[in-house]
Amino acid sequence: MNAKQDTQNQPEAIGRPTGKAGFGAPKTSTALFMMFEAAAKSLTQKELEYLVRLNSHAQLEAANLAISLQTIGALIYNVEPFEAPSSDSIGQMLWSLSSQLDHIAGLIEVSSNASYQLKALKNQNQHT
After folding, report:
1. 8-state DSSP, 128
2. Residue 121 forms part of a structural domain
3. Rg (CA), the chain
4. How many other CB atoms are there within 10 angstroms of residue 104's CB atom?
């Protein structure tokens, strides 16, 4: 989370605004959270099952990100065949990696919330 963001009214663990706070800088994970929260109660079992599968997609994205970081590390460490990256390009790579991590966090959060809603829906269907 950006140190300049207003975090006074936000839960620290997930950086989500409470009802009192603004949403801060646009982030994919926040957008996914907002959309899921708005739609959660109206999703069908099949839709929830689909969203639960986002966890597998997030795992794949995290593995791809690990490969990217390993490649960047090798590039920085073994400068010989490559031109040393500039501070600007390193900064751009780090911002991009940060954004990818935010996407992954959003996918995991939606998957987790969908799993919770799916269990609640299945329990409700069992009691009716």
Report:
1. -
2. yes
3. 19
4. 21
Judge whether 7 lies within some domain: no
Q: What is the DSSP string of 83-124?
A: PPPPHHHHHHHHHHHHHHHHHHHHHHHHHHHHHHHHHHHHHH
User: Which pair of tokens denotes residue 124?
Assistant: 């409700």
Residue 1, both tokens = 């989370």
Number of structural domains found in the chain: 1
Distance CA 29, CA 84 (A): 33
At 92 the pLDDT is: 82
Is residue 110 assigned to a domain? yes
DSSP symbols for 65-82:
HHHHHHHHHHHHH--TTS
Global confidence as pTM: 0.61
Tell which phi-psi region holds residue 24, choosing left (phi > 0), alpha (psi between -120 and 50) or beta: left
Q: What is the mean pLDDT of each run of 10 residues along the chain (128 residues)?
A: 36 42 76 90 93 90 85 72 68 84 90 92 87
- So what's the pLDDT on residue 3? 34
Whether 23 is covered by a domain: the verdict is no
Q: Which domain holds residue 73?
A: 45-126
